[in-house]
Each structure stands twice: as C-alpha cells, then as structure tokens.
Write a structure and sequence with these properties.
single chain; 525 residues; alpha/beta; TIM Barrel; Recoverin, domain 1; Double Stranded RNA Binding Domain; 3 domains; eight-stranded parallel β-barrel; 17 helices; 20% strand
Length: 525
C-alpha cells in the first residue's frame, strides 16, 4: 500500500466509464481537453479509455499518454493477451502508466455472460494480471460485479490477483446493487480473509442505480479503501457513477470524521464540471450537490437572514471552495481587457493570449446586445472558444422568415475550408427546422435529429440561449452545442457543428484507410 495510509487516491474514469453514457462520446481533442483539466484538478489517476474497444479509443488513450503530464495514465483491458498488449502499447509514452485488467466473478456473470467455472475464472485472472505485470509495473485488477459475488470466491480471486502481481485491487459495485452496511462488511471480510491484502491498495468503484454510489464509496473508505473511482458530474452508464465533486467535498467537509485527505484542488471543481457538461452536452441539474446552480442559493427568508449573519448557518461549504464565485452582475461593455482577464481567471479558466483575445472580442459583441452580463455568460463564451474546432463549414449568413399561418423559410450562406461558397434556402415547420434543412441541403449531409434542447445560460429576458443538438448518422451519434442571444442562431450553429463533426469523422476515416493502404503497399514492396 502507499506510504501515506491517510491519503485517498482519486481515480477519474470520466474518459472511459463516463464516456460510455449514451450521448456522452467525445472526440480525441475533447478528451485531451478533459484530461488536461483533470490533471489541473489534481486527480491521481486518469483512466483514459479502453484501447481494445476501437481504433479511435486506442488513439485517444495514446494521445492522452503522450500529452498529459502529472497523473498516472491508465488503460482498461479484459483479461486476455490481446487487450492487455494493446493497452500497454497505447500507454507506452506515459511517464507514469497503469494497466487495469478486469474479469467478472459473480455467479450471474459466470453463468450468463462468460460461461466459465470458478476454476477457469481464477486461472484467467491470474494469467491476465501476470501478463499485464510483465508489460507494466503498475497493475490494477477488478473483479467485475464484485458486490454480487460470493464472499469466499471473491476472496480467492482477490488473493490470487495479489499473488500474481496486482498492486491495486478494485472492488466494483458494477450494477449499483449494494447498500452501505453490506458493502462495509464485504471490505471487512476481504481485509480479514485475504493474505497479502495489506501490501496493496484497495479501491472502490460504485454505480448509482439506487442513488447510493457516493454513500457506498464513502463507506468503503471507512472500511479501508484508499482509492475512489469516480467521474465528473457522476456521468456514466445507466444512472452514472460516483460523483467526483461530491465524494471529494464530503471527505474535505467531514475531515474530522473520515480522517483522510485527497490531492484535489477543489477550487477547480466547478470549472471542470462546466467543461465536462459543455463537451458532453449533459447539463448539470440545478439542484445537484456541490456544483449545481442552486447548491449555494437561498430562497427562504430565514435562510437568507442566517447566511447574511454568518455563512455557516446554512452553508457547510463555501462557494469559493469549489471555484464558484458569489458575484453575479459583472463587467459591461466599457470594461477593459485586464478586468476581463481577471474575471476569467476568477472563474477558474486559463486562456492563452490568442484565446483571450478571441473571447474578449466576443464579450464586447455580446455586451452590445445585453444590458447585464453574468458569470454564466463569460463561462459560455470561454467554453465556446476553447471548444471551437476549425470545422470545414462556417456560417456566414443566416436569414429566417416565419408567419403564424404558413411555413417558415430559412436561407443560409456557408463557406467551406476548400474555398467553396454555398447558399441554400429551405422551408420547415419553424425557423429552426427550416435552418436545419437549409444546412443539410448546402452540405449534402442528411442526419436524423434525435434530441434538441434550448436552455437559458443566465437570467433575464436577454439571456443567452444554449442549444444542444444530438443527431444520428450512419449508426453513430454526434452532438453539437452553441450559445447566442438569438436561439435560432444558436440552434443553427449547433447543428452546423454536428455536420462538421460528421464530415471530419468521414475524412478522418478515409485518411486512416489511405494510410493503412500506403503502409500495406510499402510492406508489399
């Protein structure tokens, strides 16, 4: 186990388990942005992906391993040689790397998923850990569905994995089935009955199907776990994972009870939450603990009176502790560049000079449209500039006409990166529908709209509207987002972002095929 038994490692799996949530897939540049934010946040381990899942996953893990410094970079693998070797190769450039192997152990999974007997499970787990250990000094083993595995067999598997060379053993509540008292007993049983368990670090990975992922993770810490596997905003398969921001602030706020610490820079929690929300298109619920808009809001008069007297009357955390400013009304069209830079930094964002200049210009343009500017407006501008990829298509002009007794009409004028200028007009059930159809006509890409949302970024009649668009194209899901004080404009730009993603994916696929063909030809000669 690590030298400091009072330190809990934070293992973030936003890029792996979090991305598996429907609609949360990320491009490689987006994964890199999130990985850098996680490094700045101070997470100990970043699970960058599942390299064997696809060529794109392998390349994303490799990119994170090459470019992100600080945390241990981890790749997931099933207990088979091909998976393990692919993961090791993808991680080879990381100064600190870990191969995370897993194998299901519960009777349900043994019978219905794997069709394997207990003896075969034990042998396969040992072989997988040993092979991973040959390729990487840092190996983690997870008995999938551990919380529904018979205790005696689970102890056998964990002991065998330790003997084979695993330095971390993770106990997953894969389907969010367990409850705190039961989970605590599981950990106590393993610590009492597994030889060599004192040499390794026990980890916990909980899903939130019954709403107890954070509670179960904290219970595991009390019972001896010293690594928590979690995701930003709790995103993940089905109901999601243990929420990083919630479990970290629980440990910090209740230090006297838990008597452990983490290395998380908690003032980075809010901006990291907003970044992941923006990239995945998964809005943070207003009432979400720690980072929701209402987390530090007080409506009841008696609460407001108490907080004004002293924050501790109704706030067990301070908003500044998680990177959330109390300031609402900020700056204006006469504000200078230095004041704007200071505000951006106070919100937890770091921009280079080019990015700052671009955001400042957009801020000035927005200030001419809005009477009042709020922190949320600044955040939206930063997210848009940080996340903007130079797509092949750019919207030059949008014109819409609508009437209550007839179809709406939209005209778009687009420029492609190859120099083409294309103009199209289309009719639809409303201005947004007409704009989408005009873009499809201009780009010759027809996508199936699956989800369309518009929400206000801040308050007031002149608030910016954030549009979130999800489409399906060739059995793949693509997502786009944009903000504007004009919701038709933001919707149109979000849809165009989706079209750009589709075209970039297609050209990237063709480029990979061409490279593969060239390599094959070279080998043949």
């Amino acid at each position: 186990m690590a030298a400091d038994p009072d330190r809990v490692l934070i293992f973030d799996t936003t890029l792996r388990d979090g991305e598996q949530a429907p609609g949360c897939s990320m491009t490689r540049p987006e994964k890199l942005r999130v990985a850098r934010a996680l490094a700045d946040l101070g997470v100990d381990v970043i699970e960058a992906g599942f390299p064997a899942a696809s060529k794109g996953d392998w390349e994303s893990v490799q990119a994170v391993a090459r470019e992100v410094q600080g945390p241990v970079i981890c790749g997931l693998a099933r207990c088979n040689r091909e998976d393990i070797e692919l993961a090791a190769r993808a991680l080879s450039d990381a100064p600190r790397r870990r191969v995370h192997v897993f194998l299901a152990t519960s009777a349900i999974h043994r019978q219905y998923k794997l069709n394997m007997a207990e003896e075969e499970i034990l042998r396969t787990a040992v072989e997988g850990v040993r092979r991973a250990r040959e390729l990487c000094d840092d190996v983690e083993f997870s008995p999938e569905d551990a919380s529904r595995t018979e205790l005696e067999f689970l102890a056998q598997v964990v002991e065998a994995a330790i003997e084979a060379g695993a330095g971390t053993v993770n106990i997953p509540d894969t389907v969010g089935y367990t409850v705190p008292d039961e989970f605590a007993e599981l950990f106590r049983y393993l610590r009492k009955n597994v030889r060599g368990i004192e040499r390794i670090r026990l980890s916990v990975h909980c899903h939130d199907d019954l709403g107890m992922a954070v509670a179960n993770s904290l219970t595991a810490v009390v019972a001896g776990a010293r690594q928590i596997e979690c995701t930003i905003n709790g995103i993940g398969e089905r109901a999601g994972n243990c929420s990083l921001e919630e479990v970290v602030m629980a440990l910090k706020t209740r230090t006297a009870f838990f008597n452990v610490s983490t290395g998380i820079q908690t003032t980075r929690l809010y901006p990291t939450s907003r970044l992941v929300s923006s990239i995945t298109g998964m809005p943070v619920p207003r009432n979400k603990a720690v980072v929701g808009e209402n987390a530090f809001a007080h409506e009841a008069g008696i609460h407001q009176h108490g907080v004004l007297r002293h924050y501790s009357t109704y706030e067990i955390m301070r908003p500044e502790d998680v990177g959330l400013s109390r300031s609402h009304l900020i700056l204006g069209k006469h504000s200078g560049r230095h004041a704007f830079r200071d505000r951006v930094r106070a919100l937890g964002f770091e921009l280079d000079e080019a990015e700052l200049n671009q955001v400042f210009e957009e801020f000035k343009a927005l200030a001419d449209k809005k009477k009042e500017l709020f922190d949320g407006d600044i955040e939206a501008l930063v997210m848009r500039v940080e996340g903007s990829a130079a797509g092949p298509w750019m919207l030059l002009e949008l014109e819409t006409h609508t009437a209550s007794d007839g179809a709406a009409t939209a005209k778009v004028r687009l420029r492609h990166s190859d120099g083409r200028l294309v103009e199209r007009t289309a009719q639809g059930d409303g201005p947004v529908d007409a704009s989408f159809k005009a873009i499809e006509g201009a780009t010759s890409i027809g996508a199936m709209l699956r989800k369309f949302e518009v929400r206000a970024v801040t308050e007031g009649e002149d608030a910016q509207g954030e549009a979130l668009v999800t489409v399906e194209y060739n059995q793949r899901t693509y997502r786009g987002a944009s903000v504007s004080t004009n919701i038709v404009e933001s919707s149109t730009k979000a849809f165009l972002e989706v079209i750009n993603r589709i075209e970039l994916a297609a050209t990237g696929g063709r480029a990979r095929e061409e490279r593969a063909g060239a390599q094959s030809a070279a080998k043949a000669t």
